[in-house]
Write a structure and sequence with these properties.
Layout (H helix, E strand, L loop, with lengths): L1 H17 L2 E2 L1 H5 L7 E5 L2 E8 L2 E8 L11 E7 L5 E10 L2 E5 L9 E7 L6 E5 L11 E2 L10
Antiparallel strand pairs: 1-10, 2-3, 3-4, 4-7, 5-6, 5-8, 6-7, 8-9
């Protein structure tokens, strides 16, 4: 009976730990290319802003590259002066989507990225790629659209 109680306790503990969701701040600590990371469905998107180019790296939740061969997407860049620029994101390498356009990166910019994976509905997410990042990653028990659980 003690073993059964122990197993139930451990399963409960495991489920509690697994139900913890990562915040955007935590996801940003996982950025491998110096960008900002957001969760889209079962995938991570890392947005890196360059001069007139956006690069989106697509990985699974443990960081394994996901091929972008059949993924389509777009990005809408919103700047402080109410300027909106929409770019098509196209596969360029194994797990990379890129889009080029006439924009100047600015700290107050936001970028709405929508990707469509084969057989799925479009998955949108929002980035503030040049905003100052928090120094303390947090883990939150509540979920939002940009969080996930393991």
């Amino acid at each position: 009976m003690k073993i059964f109680t122990y197993i139930i306790f451990m399963l409960g503990l495991l489920l509690t730990v697994n139900s913890m969701a990562h915040t955007d701040e935590y996801l940003d600590t996982q950025a491998r290319h110096g960008g900002q990371v957001r969760m889209v469905g079962a995938y991570h998107l890392e947005l890196v802003v360059g001069e007139k180019i956006l690069t989106v790296y697509v990985t699974d939740h443990v960081g394994n590259p996901i091929t972008t061969k059949n993924i389509t997407g777009n990005a809408t860049i919103m700047l402080a002066e109410q300027t909106k620029i929409t770019l098509d994101l196209k596969p360029t390498e194994k797990n990379i989507l890129t889009g080029q356009g006439e924009f100047t990166a600015a700290p107050e910019m936001t970028v709405a990225v929508t990707v469509t994976l084969p057989g799925q509905t479009p998955q949108p997410t929002s980035f503030t790629p040049l905003a100052k990042k928090s120094s303390k990653p947090e883990v939150s028990p509540s979920k939002s659209t940009s969080e996930h659980s393991h």
